[in-house]
Specification:
Radius of gyration: 23 Å
Pfam family, one: tRNA_m1G_MT
Number of helices: 8
Strand order of the largest sheet: 2-1-6-5-7
Helix content: 25-40%
GO molecular function: tRNA (guanine(37)-N1)-methyltransferase activity
Family: Belongs to the RNA methyltransferase TrmD family.
Structural class: alpha/beta
Keywords: Cytoplasm, Methyltransferase, S-adenosyl-L-methionine, Transferase, tRNA processing
Distance between the termini: 41 Å
Largest sheet: 5 strands, parallel
Order of helices and strands: EHEEEHEHEHEHHEEHH
Protein name: tRNA (guanine-N(1)-)-methyltransferase
């Protein structure tokens, strides 16, 4: 997979050289290229923004450097491949695990990191003539720019690449992973020692009874989801009688539509 990132703060992406992603980048499993948008400015101040038409606070990123930057990246295509342009923005569609899985199938992604009040809207419209374009949001809050959301999305996407995680089952068992458990959060996890500061690991995890462990983990996932993200329970199907009992303990009433046939 190839990923191009255009930003006015290239140094923001130093974390891409760390941990598993850094190893994958060093080995060539993923080709990540970070570009400084100011390379496509031609005044002595390297200006990338200007006041908004129609008035209002803040500044808007100018279309000229963005257009030239994307033209340059696109010109470096290999064969007939065309990238998908992702623009992180609070006004975009919510980025979910499903989007991470979908984007993992793309051979080439380009991230455009906006700043200030955003990028001149004509840039996305123009880019759409040459490549797929989508706007994505990592949450209902506003950040200073698109760099942090890009780091989030790049990590979410690349960790799903075959071979990047040492244990392929790790991604499958995550909260929001594919399948019936997709709407449940992951429960608590423990490691050695079995007793730490007089706090013991739940006995069932030491029992060697895999069926009991699986049941405990599901119970805890149900409890945590009910506590932290109760709205997700409406999307869980195939609940059995034990699931209903666990949820009843925490005050959640489940309709027949959620129950297993």
């Amino acid at each position: 997979m190839r990923i191009d990132i255009v930003t006015i703060f290239p140094e923001y992406f130093a974390p891409l050289d760390l941990s598993l992603l850094g190893k994958a980048r060093a080995s060539g499993m993923v080709d990540i290229r970070v570009h400084d948008l100011r390379s496509w400015t031609y005044d002595r101040h390297n200006t990338v923004d200007d006041t908004p038409y129609g008035g209002g606070p803040g500044m808007v990123m100018k279309p000229e450097p963005w257009g030239q930057a994307l033209d340059t990246v696109l010109a470096d295509r290999q064969g007939e491949s065309v990238p998908r342009l992702v623009i992180p923005t609070p006004s975009g569609a919510p980025f979910t695990q499903r989007d991470a899985e979908r984007l993992t199938e793309e051979p080439w992604l380009v991230f455009a990191c906006g700043r200030y009040e955003g990028i001149d809207a004509r840039v996305a419209a123009e880019a759409a003539e040459s490549m797929p374009v989508e706007e994505l949001s990592v949450g209902d809050y506003v950040l200073a720019g698109g760099e942090a959301p890009t780091l989030v999305m790049v990590e979410a996407v690349t960790r799903l690449l075959p071979g990047l995680l040492g244990n392929a089952d790790s991604a499958v068992q995550d909260s929001f992973a594919r399948g019936e458990m997709s709407a449940l959060l992951e429960g608590p996890v423990y490691t050695k020692p079995s007793v730490w500061r007089e706090r013991e690991v739940p006995e069932v995890l030491l029992s060697g009874n895999h069926a009991a462990v699986d049941r405990w983990r599901r119970d805890e996932a149900l409890r945590r989801t009910a506590q932290n993200r109760p709205e997700l329970l409406a999307h869980v199907t195939g609940l059995d009688q034990r699931d209903r009992e666990v949820l009843a303990e925490v005050g959640v009433r489940i309709t027949d539509a959620n129950m297993a046939d």
